[in-house]
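Researcher: Please predict.
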Amino acid sequence: MIARVNICVADVRAEPNNRSERVSQGLLNEIVQVLGEAPSFSMVRFSDGYKGWIAHQFLCPHDKFPGDGPYIVQANIASAYDKPDISSRPIARIPYGCCLYGEMADGFLEMPTERWGSLYVEQINLLEKSEIAPLENLMSDKIVIEAEKFLGVPYLWGGRSFFGTDCSGYVKAIFARFARELPRDTKEQIKAGTEVGRKDVRRGDLLFFPGHVALAITNTLFIHSSRLNGGVAYNSFDSKESNYRADLDKSFKTARRLLA
């Protein structure tokens, strides 16, 4: 069966119970293949091949999306209202990167949902799919601008959104904004792109460490979601800087380039 996530952020568990480890998250309208059932949970597979358990109530059967789209949320968090008026009641907060569908009129997307009925999202918070520049046509500055939107977002193991993210969920979200789907975990992300020597690292490269990934801002400065930092922040390989991370400097494994 094909299903889709019907809530803004749905936890994906290692086992079919709410006390099991959160291994990832599904975002609103993500399509999944249901592979199996357990009491209150479904085993699902995402488009990148990642598998896990999602509670039944956070999924609905999927045939086709209503209306036009996708419209991609470009704001950190987009409010969804019960009327096409920002002074009306907000019903949901939809995170960066979600794909929405519906009808656009008078500056709002009217979006039918199974959970809340029709909701309205300001057009200014959305991008049409045609506005998304392919990764191969981008300058590295574009990637960094998107990455910096997440500064201060708290660290959350298994997280993939502005409400909280881990390191691999963070870089996955950033590159998805440019239609490049990365695998969910660092052990697979490290195979993407082409290898780059440490001395040749430049803006926009991915930096890998044991079980960890970061995005290069310069040859020495990088941004990442780190448990030690409490979330998304800058760190440096330069021992003279106050944000120097000796542990990552010493444990650096490789860099990978996804941009031309």
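Model: The longest helix spans residues 167-176.
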